[in-house]
Amino acid sequence: MSKSLKIVELFAGVGGFRLGLEALNTKKEKKFTTIWSNQWEPSTKAQHASNVYVREFGLKPSKEDDCIFHKENKKGEIVETHVCKDIHPLSLDAKNSIPDHDILVGGFPCQDYSVAKTLSRAKGIEGKKGVLWWDIHRILESKKPPFVLLENVDRLLKSPVSQRGRDFAIMLASLSDLGYSVEWRIINAAEYGMPQRRRRIFVMGYLKGTSWQKASSMDQDWILENGILGKAFSSSIIGSAPMFPSKIEGSLVEITEKFNTKKDSKSPFMNAGFMDSREYLTFQVKAKNASKKQMTIKDILQPKKSIPEEFWLDEESMDKWKYLKGAKKEKRKTKEGYEYPYNEGPMVFPDRLDRPSRTIVTGEGGKTASRFKHVIEQEGKLRRLVPEELELLNMFPKGHTKGVPDARRAFFMGNALVVGVVEKIGKSIIQQKG
């Protein structure tokens, strides 16, 4: 690929997509260059994630607006912009507010994708409550970048409960209507040698007319080994693959109202697939030729002497930790007084050091005992993981989120992706020349 691909990063968090793609740059050649990014958290006044992003990637406040940051080259020309504002009004004016780019990336929140009829819009649809998928949609519609790479929780394939797969069907159909072919894959980072068992869906779209779209085909070989995700993450089929594709029918409003409405229906979307012109082929896959060298919790542990006192478990809280981590078979009551049986299996306590970690959750920070927080044993004592270890489990640089409260640093890593997954996808993208 002769030129550097220009990146726009939405819902940037602390920059996981950027880190993964720009890791492929060398002193001689920049394969990916971030030119514009957006990070804004509506529920809090302090914008810690944006502050980390600005600091770590060397941006400076603009003179005109303290929510806009720039990076300049030696000539004083602006080469990058970061905006810490609500994406919605920016997407409404995407033509002017967002620069042309080659690849749009983002780990967007999982929300309702449904659309509603409206008399005020000529095209007849709009997202309910201004949800974030439709901001992405507007930007793609306006800018038409050759590539789009998105990440979300794996339950996206099955949501909502009342219409399994409807949200993903809307997403696929709307991308197709914009002119994109799409491949998707649920990837567990640990199965490819990375230090965390984190399952996330990655959606890779390429615009019609691009070399990748021209090379694509509606067959299992494209999904398994020839597509961008197939090249990056080798896999094999579980069971048998369908011989013929299915099709997503109807307008986006009709999909919202009628898709998979039969009671107890399963989602038609499996953990891997490809879609072109609303036709899709999908089947279950598993990792093939998994990495021989697997990173584990032990590989990222920091020296005992560097661990602050508050991360060590005290004797007073030990009973609570053991209860929450242990098996339960008890009766519980709702707020209304209804009594019901509650059963729960045990969790490994402490976490094993010779395996990749469990998925980091957003509530990882704080001293309070929790079923889902990681607890490890080091030199005979139990402790929680420190922020630097959580960063390394996501393959971020150590200390990337320093300077903000520990609970927020843990929250960032609970929301983040595994950087190594994006790096592998980036390698697959640049293998295709032209």
Present the secondary structure layout.
Blueprint: E1 5-10, H1 16-22, E2 32-38, H2 48-56, E3 60-61, E4 68-72, E5 78-83, H3 87-92, H4 94-97, E6 103-106, E7 115-116, E8 126-127, H5 132-143, E9 147-153, H6 166-177, E10 180-188, E11 199-207, H7 211-215, H8 220-226, H9 228-232, E12 235-237, E13 246-247, H10 252-258, E14 272-276, E15 279-283, E16 285-287, H11 297-300, H12 315-325, E17 328-333, E18 339-344, E19 375-378, E20 381-384, H13 387-393, H14 406-415, H15 419-431
Parallel strand pairs: 1-2, 1-6, 2-5, 6-9
Antiparallel strand pairs: 3-4, 4-5, 7-8, 9-11, 10-11, 10-14, 12-16, 13-15, 14-15, 17-18, 19-20
Helix pairs in contact: 1-15
What would you call the quaternary organization? Answer: single chain
- Based on CA atoms alone, the radius of gyration comes out at 23 Å
Main beta sheet, described? 12 strands, mixed
Mean pLDDT: 92
Number of helices: 15
Structural class: alpha+beta
Which regions are unreliable across 5 or more consecutive residues at pLDDT < 50? 118-126
The percent range for strand residues is 15-25%
What strand line-up does the widest sheet have?
3-4-5-2-1-6-9-11-10-14-15-13
Coarse shape: globular
Helix content: 25-40%
The CA-CA distance between the termini, in Å, is 6 Å
**Total DSSP E strands:** 20
Structure description:
The protein is an alpha+beta fold. Helices cover 27% and strands 22% of the residues. The chain has helices at residues 16-22, 48-56, 87-92, 94-97, 132-143, 166-177, 211-215, 220-226, 228-232, 252-258, 297-300, 315-325, 387-393, 406-415, 419-431; strands at residues 5-10, 32-38, 60-61, 68-72, 78-83, 103-106, 115-116, 126-127, 147-153, 180-188, 199-207, 235-237, 246-247, 272-276, 279-283, 285-287, 328-333, 339-344, 375-378, 381-384. The strands form five sheets. It has a twelve-stranded mixed sheet with strand order 3-4-5-2-1-6-9-11-10-14-15-13, with helices on both faces.
